[in-house]
Amino acid sequence: MTPKTETFFAGRLDYAKLSIFENLLAKAMKAQEQDLRDWNKIRAWAESVYSTFGQGAI
């Protein structure tokens, strides 16, 4: 299978959901706990994929 489209979105960092190792690594990197997801951009991308490939592709 070859992807027809590829997109990357910012995510969310929630220390409470990380393993001990991930938590230590994130804190060592001074990563801030935050949510950078842009739901409007995600929705727009999903709609463009749907309009490109149609309902039959799902």
Report on this model:
The protein has helices at 20-28, 39-53; strands spanning 12-13, 34-35. It has a two-stranded antiparallel ribbon with strand order 1-2. The model has no long low-confidence stretch (mean pLDDT 90). The chain is built from 2 helices and 2 strands; from the N terminus they run βαβα. The protein is mainly alpha-helical. The chain has one domain (12-57).
Task: Describe the secondary-structure layout.
Blueprint: E1 12-13, H1 20-28, E2 34-35, H2 39-53
Antiparallel strand pairs: 1-2
Placed side by side, the strands forming the largest sheet appear as: 1-2
Shape: elongated
Structural class: mainly alpha
- Give the biggest beta sheet: 2 strands, antiparallel
How would you sum up this structure in a few lines?
This protein has 58 residues and is mostly helical. It contains two helices and two strands. It has one domain (12-57).
Summary keywords:
two-stranded antiparallel ribbon, 41% helix, mainly alpha, 58 residues, 2 helices
